[in-house]
Specification:
Elements (H helix, E strand, L loop, with lengths): L11 E4 L9 H13 L7 H6 L5 H12 L5 H15 L7 H10 L5 E4 L4 H11 L7 E3 L12 H10 L6 E5 L2 H9 L3 E4 L3 H7 L1
Parallel strand pairs: 1-2, 1-4, 2-3, 4-5
Length: 200
């Protein structure tokens, strides 16, 4: 499966991390399920993907509301992150995105724009040996407003010194694509793992 890019004279590539560069969404789901099981809470796979790109804290709050629970947001978030870090050695890159990273590296500046923590993003890219490919990382700690707000993508463009109209965004969620569009950037949608498996 290839990932065709839209036409345009792009001067920078901006990437979401989880599910875009790193084929980590199945691992994230496993970490979520293990953390939530300690509180008797379930997180079905279809809902997990439907909520892709949402902040961890918002997900815990909404799961509490759905299930009538009172899970402590920070404790669940920390537990989920710890479990994810333990599972990280098994992740791989999304091949279709990695091909574009390898092709354009050295010709265009790259940024990561992720709703995940810097700890999580850095760990994921380090496992894949890709951390040094990116000129800047914009993570959850850098933005007051999560996707679909364009703040993260606009910040990345400023850091790279590239006009937003010259940036191409790689994203795997509706929220991420909406953020890119709101930033005035073109985007390419990365299929989630089940879609990629079907296409092969």
């Amino acid at each position: 499966m290839t990932l065709p890019l839209p036409a345009g004279d792009f001067r920078a590539f901006l990437f979401d991390c989880d599910g875009t560069i790193v084929d980590s969404m199945p691992v994230h789901h496993r970490a979520w399920c293990a953390a939530l099981a300690e509180w008797g809470c379930e997180f079905p796979e279809d809902l997990f993907y439907a909520w892709g790109g949402r902040p961890v804290a918002d997900i815990v709050v909404d799961l509490n509301r759905r299930h009538g629970l009172a899970m402590p947001v920070e404790a669940v978030a920390r537990r989920r992150e710890d479990l994810f870090q333990r599972l990280l050695p098994g992740v791989t890159a999304v091949p279709e995105v990695l091909a574009h990273i390898e092709d354009a590296h050295g010709r265009l500046p790259f940024a990561v724009v992720s709703g995940s923590t810097r700890e999580s993003v850095t760990a994921s890219l380090t496992v894949l040996g890709l951390l040094d490919r990116f000129d800047t990382l914009v993570c959850a700690e850098d933005c007051a407003r999560p996707k679909p707000d364009p703040e993260g993508y606009l910040l990345a463009a400023r850091r790279l010194g590239v006009d937003p109209a010259g940036c191409l965004v790689f994203e795997d969620t509706d929220l991420g694509v909406a953020a890119a569009t709101a930033a005035g950037m073109a985007s390419v949608r990365v299929p989630h793992p089940r879609e990629r498996a079907t296409a092969r």
